[in-house]
Write a structure and sequence with these properties.
109 residues, mainly alpha, transmembrane, transmembrane helix, DUF4190 domain-containing protein
Length: 109
């Protein structure tokens, strides 16, 4: 075989261009997904805690949704996500209790 035939043969067997999805611009990496899930766990905890005081009709379901997504994505802060889930449920239970007591959709002191 001549040198040019080997070069053409080698060029034909190589893949044209390999682009890794981890190095592509804007492509999410595993670390980014975990950070997002951790942030969602913390946000669900904070919103669930705030929901016990104000706007529990809105903050409770948001805390439940964020905690569920964080747990589904495999957050490293599982305890915080479970607290956010529990507080979100508690927000809705507090709302139902005060609705029964006041016969309204909101509650005040």
């Amino acid at each position: 075989m001549e040198l040019t035939e080997r070069t053409h043969l080698a060029a034909a067997t190589k893949p044209a261009a390999t682009v890794s999805t981890a190095t592509a611009p804007g492509a999410p990496t595993r670390a980014t997904g975990t950070k997002d899930a951790d942030g969602m766990a913390v946000a669900s905890f904070i919103l669930g805690l705030l929901g016990l005081l104000v706007l529990n009709v809105f903050l409770g379901p948001i805390a439940i949704a964020l905690a569920s997504v964080a747990l589904w994505r495999g957050t490293a802060r599982r305890g915080r996500a479970f607290l956010g889930l529990g507080l979100g449920i508690a927000d809705l239970l507090v709302l139902v209790a005060f609705m029964q007591f006041d016969s309204t959709v909101s509650w005040n002191f």
